[in-house]
Amino acid sequence: MLTLYGFAASNYFNMVKLALLEKQLPFQVVPLFGCQSPEVLAVSARGKVPVLGTAEGFISETDVILRYIEDTSPDRPLLPASAFARAQVWTIAKEIELYIELPARMCYAEVIFGGEA
């Protein structure tokens, strides 16, 4: 069974979790916050989450995890069959990450906690 390490407030954790749910793959969640503690470094060499635990070892970085899930579970594809169409999907996903999601983080403190951004 796959094990997803991370925490629910992480957009990256939720991207992986959604892919696992959409593909109807069995998995368990282990709450884990990224840091340099020995516990975290045992599953994530950089101390980052999410991490996917597999029978073969641990996989880090959201887009790499998503590609692994897609490659190892082809019965319920989340991506188009055409290589060009897949590239278009990954392009849009990367643009959302870099130009929408990352800049929006600067507003989190004010929006979520009522503090200054």
Model description:
It holds the Pfam family GST_N_3. The protein has 117 residues and is an alpha+beta fold. The chain has two domains: 78 residues, Glutaredoxin, CATH 3.40.30.10; 38 residues. Helices cover 47% and strands 15% of the residues. Helix 1 links the parallel strand 1 and strand 2. Helix 1 packs parallel to helix 3. The N and C termini lie far apart (40 Å). The mean pLDDT is 92.
Give the structural class: alpha+beta
The count of strands amounts to 4
Using the coordinates shown, work out and report the CATH topology of the largest domain: Glutaredoxin
Give start-end ranges of low-pLDDT stretches: none
Helical residues, percent: 40-55%
Count the DSSP helices: 5
SSE order in H/E notation?
EHEHEEHHH
The strand order across the widest sheet is 2-1-3-4
**CATH architecture identity of the largest domain:** 3-Layer(aba) Sandwich
CATH homologous superfamily identity of the largest domain: Glutaredoxin
Largest sheet: 4 strands, mixed
The percent range for strand residues is: 15-25%
The gross shape turns out to be globular
Mean pLDDT, to the nearest integer, reads 92
Supply Rg.
Answer: 16 Å
CATH class of the largest domain: Alpha Beta
User: What is the number of independent domains?
Assistant: 2
Separation of the first and last Cα atoms = 40 Å
